[in-house]
Design goal:
Blueprint: H1 2-7, E1 12-15, H2 25-32, E2 38-41, H3 49-60, H4 67-101, E3 104-108, H5 114-143, H6 166-171, H7 176-185, H8 190-197, E4 206-210, E5 225-230, E6 233-242, H9 248-266, E7 282-283, E8 286-287, H10 298-310, H11 316-338
Parallel strand pairs: 1-2
Antiparallel strand pairs: 3-6, 4-6, 5-6, 7-8
Helix pairs in contact: 3-4, 4-5, 4-9, 4-11, 5-9, 9-11, 10-11
Length: 340
Amino acid sequence: MELLRLTGRPRMAIINCKEDETLYLDTWKSEFIKHFNSIRVFNAQKATYSERIALLDSLKSVEQVWQPSLEMVISAFKRDWERRNHRTAELICELLQNSLMYKINKNCTSESQMESIRVKLKEQYKIEIGKIEKKTHSKIRKLFKHNIFNYDLPNQSILNEDLFANRTWQLLGLTPGQLTTAAAVAGGVLGAALDVAASGLTFGIFTAIGSAAGAGSAFFGGERMTKAKVVGLKLGGWQVIMGPNTNIQFLYVLLDRALLYYSHIINWAHGRRDYDSAKAYQDGDNVVKQGYTFAWDDSAKKICNRYFTDIGKKDQRTYDYVHKNMMQLIKLTLDKISGS
């Protein structure tokens, strides 16, 4: 430190704390102040985006000559981060739309086949939705340059649970009271209402209709339809359809998982080893929500509810309106999470 002082060059001391222990922090500061122009406490493993920008900002006060170059660097970082957050918001919107609109179907000629077909479609639906989500998360990871490293989620992260696991739906999304209100506002769809009554555990993904559209569904004993065209062939029987999802909680769970994944990615340091010490997900017998959406205000939930009911409509103006509002909501949330 004395040799550095004798050079007469501008100097900043960075106290890179790796632990929460601060017993000797004041002693280090007292010693550094004798030799350096500026002192900053900076944990390189846990520093957020805003804290890293603040570190660069503080360098400007050490030497006035550095200011123009550092301002250019800071501006470039901010533009790049803005671009990444905007693209992440686009990716999350694509995830929501593709997942909410996804459906699969299979024809059957006998009522006795329906249950086995329903089970198979349920599993296929879950697998395909999982692939859509995984692909989106992979794109977000690549956007923040973590694709070149082996990245494992923290062991305690709810993201290690399957998307359709009961625990995922308990810890993410809206509370039961919020969900009841959201389902009512979203149009009071029978399927959604039934799913709310079942605590969301049916996921709202099951629908069955006659192979020729009608009021009665084959799954619920609707009238048997004949000579329906399926891929150019005249067949009698039914068509079992899985999706689109009718449970609005699905939207909020998908959002929470994407936002949590983003928060892991932007704050992940390659040398960090303390992730397992994070708080548990349960406070005694009370389930503690771990996502972001349950804490949103009514205006944000209104945007989500409108998106859920209107995103599948063919009217372009309606689509543009709900898509734009959802993009803005997600982008604002990403900015808050990263502190940008």
